[in-house]
């Protein structure tokens, strides 16, 4: 009987805990409380522990205690005890902010080299999205005698920024004999490609160079190059670094200097030197870049260099080089849909049609730019997939009771978008398709269309294009685009990429509103269309933002030859840049090749996504299958 009662009590306790976990919290606060909370966040960022302690104490009844505790501790995390950190993580376990705290703490543990504690805590870190922590995890393995060279090379190839964890990894691998001199110089050259000069200096010194010599190579490359390659390996490598820096300004001069100095370098050094010239010349779209890449044949290349080598071959229609150089890419790059598609095209040109179809078929069911192009290569058009069954009210109600979603909405209302997105995405981690669709519908009803789009985008089998490609403010859009002769689907595709329909979206550069207009651009367009009463405060107004944004899009069309591809690039990067990129063409190329060879990462990604979005929107609006290839068109030299 006693055991029976004990079981009943345990069941009731578990039921109460479960009910509590799913109860909708009351997050109502006063504006004074919210302002204090925001002050606390700011104090934590500045590591002002005295102020943070005072503010946190005044928020004892704030309905988001986990964040109050986090900011309080974050302000003095370097000096906090392990017991206090673990107690806070345990108190708020399985929450996004507890995982964030563990992330912060792991960075400190890695920096201190406290590997026993790091190894205990790292497997408990759930998001696993911190590159520096991944480097520290490999350091810990290497310290135990494990060979981590393969994993380190792949990870370091992704990291091109100054960070302590990845430098520590290289240093440790050198100390353990897992990285040789060739590895150290390769990592140094890779860091130089990303202009991570602080890391370049540290790595070069680790490889045996003199600090002053490295600084001169980065800051005064012409002076270093005028003295020739020098006598030993370190001096040769510093010379190669200087060549890469000079090539960013004048690739022809760098090539001439290298040609004169080649006899003083080893065969492998010559290849690496040509690669250092080839990459910056590729990023300036110089036609000579392809010849530099061919001289660099056999050099070890970073993923960035591997991709740009293929891009320059694409731009020149050298399909044999495209085919061969994709084969030489790292495995994870070869499997990317971008290079699967272009490998298929190269096989197609070579007459290997069945092999080409195999490549296209492997990505044709993916809802993105290259999935669409692959579908067309298989003789099909782009259409709207069969829609998932409608979400029921019961499914949506379950999402409305999710405490994490309610907290995310609270943060959105306080303009804490970073924290809101983190809380929202934390809830999605283990959701199945139906739950994701229900969460997306709840986001729509809550007025956060960006979360609807991003959440719905995660589904694998059950698809809702109505969620993925919404068309709010349709009357405004139809009026604005029709009066200007613009394709409404294209304008919607651009808004989806620009702001995800966040009315008051503001970029780090200062662009605002649905169509993400810079203040100067908005003033210019307002003046051009005769909007005499325009003031900057109107930029987030729905009607004004759409009016100015669509007119700016029209201006881009008129300035850039009525090409949607070029105008899209111009909207993102300004009209001068796509004109310059076009001027360096030696022949007409299809729009997809032009897009893939845009040298700005952001603009390249932007153009592909906007044009892909526009094609899906057209399929929804017109109810007819579409052609992305036709929409992209061709881009010819001026």
CATH class of the largest domain: Mainly Alpha
Main sheet makeup: 2 strands, antiparallel
CATH arch. level architecture of the largest domain: Orthogonal Bundle
Q: Structural class given helices, strands, pairing?
A: mainly alpha
CATH topology of the largest domain: Lysozyme
Word description of this protein:
With 638 residues, the chain is mostly helical. The protein has 4 domains: 34-124; 180-300, no CATH class; 393-468; 474-635, Orthogonal Bundle (Lysozyme). Helix content is 67%, strand content 1%. It has 39 helices and 2 strands. The chain has a two-stranded antiparallel ribbon. The radius of gyration is 28 Å and the shape is globular.
Topology:
Elements: H1 2-22, H2 31-45, H3 49-57, H4 65-74, H5 82-91, H6 96-112, H7 115-121, H8 131-143, H9 149-158, H10 164-175, H11 181-193, H12 197-207, H13 211-219, H14 221-225, H15 233-247, H16 251-261, H17 267-283, H18 289-295, H19 303-315, H20 319-327, H21 331-334, H22 337-349, H23 353-361, H24 369-377, H25 393-400, H26 403-413, H27 417-428, H28 433-445, H29 449-456, H30 465-468, H31 474-484, H32 488-498, H33 519-528, H34 542-559, H35 564-573, H36 576-583, E1 589-590, H37 591-596, H38 601-622, H39 628-632, E2 634-635
Helix pairs in contact: 2-3, 2-4, 3-4, 4-6, 5-6, 6-7, 6-8, 8-9, 8-10, 10-12, 11-12, 11-15, 12-13, 13-15, 15-16, 15-17, 16-17, 17-18, 17-19, 19-20, 20-22, 22-23, 23-24, 25-28, 26-27, 28-29, 31-34, 32-38, 33-34, 34-35, 35-36, 35-38
